[in-house]
Predict the structure.
Amino acid sequence: MFDGFEVFDVEVDGVRIHGRRGGSGPPVLLLHGIPETHLMWHRVARALEVRAEYVRCFSDPATVHSICEEYRAAATLDIDHDNADRGRRQIRCPVLALWSLDGPLPEWYGDPLELWRPWAPHVRGHAVPGGHFLPEERPTDVTTALHAFLTQPSAGVDPRTGRSW
């Protein structure tokens, strides 16, 4: 539950304080109440392993440049490639597509499943509440969707839409 954190105990005025520490930067003390234990912080603590790693990666100018180039390609070269492949090259296995319920994707492009269908005729999925980083923001929703996707037959009818795959 606390991968990357080390356990420690410290004695202060005859009282033993049990804790975990990890990451870098200024220390943050997360206290629990009663009847919780330090376990209540496992998702929050990880989210704080995560922010430091994003800062580390995005502090590299070459990484930022690469991200900008990817966005630039998506708006130009990638569209040309997509149009050339539409209906010709397909992903034949079942595909799960999840997107942000709170994001602009449907407004910009319409139904994301219909968008994917020319390339992935066996696509299924749905919107998930949250922003751009769904696995970090909504891990339970993403895990639930993955579990349903992996345990449902690869051919059948999507109970949400009635569409066949």
Observations:
- The chain is about 40% helix and 15% strand.
- The CA atoms of residues 3 and 46 lie 8 Å apart.
- Residues 90-165 form one domain.
- The chain has three domains: 6-58, 61-86, 90-165.
